[in-house]
Amino acid sequence: MLGIIIGVAAVIVMISVGSGAQARVEDQIRTLGTNLIILMPGSVTSGGVRMGAGSRPSLTEDDSYAIQREVAAVQAAAPALRGTGQVVAGTSNWATVFYGVTPDYFEARNWFIAAGRSFEPAELSGAGKVALLGETVARNLFGDGDPIGQVIRIRKVPFTVIGLLERKGQSLIGQDQDDVILMPISTARNRVLGGGTARHRGVGSVSIKIRDGEDMTQAEEQIRSLLRQRHRIQAGQDDDFTLRNLSEVLQAQEQSSRIMTLLLAAIASVSLLVGGIGIMNIMLVSVTERTREIGLRMAVGARGRDILAQFLVEAVTLALIGGLLGILLGVGGSYAVGHLAEWRTELNAQAIVLAAGFAAVVGVFFGFYPARKASRLLPIEALRYE
CA angle, 21 as apex, 338 and 274 as ends, to 5°? Predict the structure, then answer.
């Protein structure tokens, strides 16, 4: 039974580790926002050198509003301006990134406010000097203190902290998403960044959330068509913007996780196969050792199917007992891996049922040959066996 025990336990542990990895990927994608398309400015070419995405200020707030107004599949389109700088609060300071956003940003990025409030209409229209802090910024500036109501300085501009953002954790590339400050987009443009940004109402990116049930690819094409029309891009010319469909990233990551889970389960299943071969060998030895017993049973009226059933029941019993012990060991092993290795594991009831069912199938499959051999013995020859 040892092979069955180890095999079932290994299958359960491997599937729980793979499921945990897949769930972690899904959670990381979800922190970016569900059904999300990121719109970025295009690239500019100077002296034959292409400068890369975002080097050409081709997007404006009006583009964002047009997308939300004219593309029916769009639930929210949130323009954003990005900047970096040193933030000072009393005697503490911290280098971080800040974004100028609209209230739609919270909906598009699936981000909630843990404490405090969001921006008021007057603060949005009047470039109010208010800010929301990510958890990392708040901890480094105020420690365990309450940041709400405190005054901070960003590029020497005073801001009042009006809220604390819900914790997001790390992104897929390991970036701390809580190391951020959010302010009204008008404030970022007019009071902090200034320059050409204030004159042209340009934005650094637009986060576009697509309604549930809508075709992401079709929505992406509608957005592209609208922007090409607004930017007067002729047929055959390259786009002056970039669209990134994060749902495609999610699907690719989920597919990779599923393949890895299946691979781990397949590797662990080899132990079940080895355990099945062990059962078959032991049952063959048992048939040889019990040849006289089989002959005696046949002599007093047992039929071939009775002998077949006897040895099949013994093989399946061995497999099922091993399977049950393997389930206990597998569940304990999953918790141990999650606790000791600090990996996320998720026990899957289907994996447990699958492992136990596979153990029974192994018992029947590998027990059939010895049982059939026993049932086909001739009573006289079996009784004469020494």
Answer: 75
- Selection from 25, 21, 28 nearest residue 261 by Cα: 21
Predicted confidence (pLDDT) per residue in 83-115, tens digit: 999 999 988 999 999 999 999 999 888 888 999
- What CA–CA distances, in Å, run from 290 to 293, 336, 374, 375? 5, 43, 9, 12
What amino acid occupies position 366? F
The residue out of 216, 239, 262 marking a domain boundary is 239
Residue 317, helix vs strand vs coil: helix
- Name residue 158's beta-bridge partners: 153
Average pLDDT over the chain, rounded to an integer: 82
Q: What's this model's pTM, rounded to 2 decimal places?
A: 0.63
Q: Could you tell me the CA-to-CA distances from 111 to 107, 167, 378 in Å, in that order?
A: 7, 9, 77
Q: What six digits make up the tokens of 201? A: 């109402």
Residue 148 burial (10 A CB sphere; 0-12, 13-18, 19+): middle
Q: Are residues 108 and 9 in the same domain?
A: no
Residue 300 has phi, psi (to 5 degrees) of: -100, 15
C-beta of residue 9 within 8 angstroms of C-beta of residue 2: no
How many helical (H) and strand (E) elements, i.e. helices and strands, does the chain have?
A: 13, 12
Tally of domains in the chain? 2
- 220 and 322 together in one domain: no
CA distance linking residue 360 with residue 215, whole number of Å: 44
Q: Which domain holds residue 315?
A: 2-25+251-384
Sign of CA dihedral 83, 84, 86, 87: positive
Residues contacting residue 170 through CB under 8 Å, at least 6 positions apart = 28, 176, 177
> In Å, how far are 15, 18, 270, 273, 348 from 259, measured between CA atoms?
11, 9, 17, 21, 16
Residue 50 lies in a domain: no
What is the distance in angstroms between the CA of the first residue and the CA of the last residue of the chain? 29
190 and 75 co-located in one domain: yes
Asked whether residue 13 falls in the same domain as residue 149, the answer is: no
The two tokens of residue 246 are: 């994060």
Let me know: does 93 contact 228? Beta carbons within 8 Å: no
